[in-house]
């Protein structure tokens, strides 16, 4: 038969801290173990050695960050190498991952080594307080912060401080360099298309995308929508998809009296208007046409263009009208272009004139 003897247990006292095990507490508070100084606490040479080790880690981090940036210049984007035991990998991706990993690891390892060898490691108990702090507690926290900052050696150990700041300042540059992955700078590549080679003296014929044959003016029926490409652009060409993304053309025939924009009328031929097929919102191909209203609709986000009024935007998120191509006919009556679009095709970009 068992008996509860907790009420008869004597109170236990802790010799070092005076903690008392009251009724219901089986053990006394053992308190904190006695602080044991580290070697760096009693040997200044060991402290200096630890300081150099931490600084070296921060310097390696800086060098790795510089290596990360240099990798973008040194390694081709399409180069594949064999690395044991990983296998075949992109040399650029491997170099970027390795250098960035070393840069971040050395910062973390340096901070941990600093904290374990040079910063104060005294453990101090703190009583719990209400969430709202009084003036005395706030003053105590500020004082503890100042004490911790002083004991960390951040202000006194200049080599540590400077190398840490240097490594932390260089690492964000890796993120800036990563913007290159958005693609090469457009320069003038987006400002010109395959129609750019056309001149009044050497025009380029308009080729039907379906039949792959040049078109005559009488082939364009009023109310229809026809797609065209420049003569010489073949579908089996290596860069066909790149070129057609800029050169794609759509032709409509509108009664001349229904064309509201004088400039569009002048760029066209007998009511035949040639507009870029690439939507000026995000570059989707426009493929829907309403012959009664002369509206062209982009199926992606419903941007709507009035082809009878300079292809201006009348609905949707597109930012500007569709560029128009100046066309005429040659001696055989085939439709030809005599120049490039009147403005860059496709969505807006930083270097775009407007």
TrEMBL record:
<keyword id="KW-0472">Membrane</keyword>
<feature type="transmembrane region" description="Helical">
    <location>
        <begin position="54"/>
        <end position="74"/>
    </location>
</feature>
<dbReference type="InterPro" id="IPR036922">
    <property type="entry name" value="Rieske_2Fe-2S_sf"/>
</dbReference>
<keyword id="KW-0408">Iron</keyword>
<dbReference type="Pfam" id="PF00355">
    <property type="entry name" value="Rieske"/>
</dbReference>
<dbReference type="InterPro" id="IPR014349">
    <property type="entry name" value="Rieske_Fe-S_prot"/>
</dbReference>
<feature type="domain" description="Rieske">
    <location>
        <begin position="272"/>
        <end position="336"/>
    </location>
</feature>
<keyword id="KW-0479">Metal-binding</keyword>
<feature type="compositionally biased region" description="Basic and acidic residues">
    <location>
        <begin position="1"/>
        <end position="16"/>
    </location>
</feature>
<keyword id="KW-1133">Transmembrane helix</keyword>
<keyword id="KW-0249">Electron transport</keyword>
<comment type="similarity">
    <text>Belongs to the Rieske iron-sulfur protein family.</text>
</comment>
<dbReference type="Pfam" id="PF19297">
    <property type="entry name" value="QcrA_N"/>
</dbReference>
<feature type="transmembrane region" description="Helical">
    <location>
        <begin position="94"/>
        <end position="115"/>
    </location>
</feature>
<keyword id="KW-0560">Oxidoreductase</keyword>
<keyword id="KW-1015">Disulfide bond</keyword>
<keyword id="KW-0812">Transmembrane</keyword>
<keyword id="KW-0679">Respiratory chain</keyword>
<dbReference type="InterPro" id="IPR045603">
    <property type="entry name" value="QcrA_N"/>
</dbReference>
<protein>
    <recommendedName>
        <fullName>Cytochrome bc1 complex Rieske iron-sulfur subunit</fullName>
    </recommendedName>
</protein>
<keyword id="KW-0411">Iron-sulfur</keyword>
<keyword id="KW-1003">Cell membrane</keyword>
<comment type="function">
    <text>Iron-sulfur subunit of the cytochrome bc1 complex, an essential component of the respiratory electron transport chain required for ATP synthesis. The bc1 complex catalyzes the oxidation of menaquinol and the reduction of cytochrome c in the respiratory chain. The bc1 complex operates through a Q-cycle mechanism that couples electron transfer to generation of the proton gradient that drives ATP synthesis.</text>
</comment>
<dbReference type="InterPro" id="IPR017941">
    <property type="entry name" value="Rieske_2Fe-2S"/>
</dbReference>
<keyword id="KW-0813">Transport</keyword>
<feature type="region of interest" description="Disordered">
    <location>
        <begin position="1"/>
        <end position="20"/>
    </location>
</feature>
<keyword id="KW-0001">2Fe-2S</keyword>
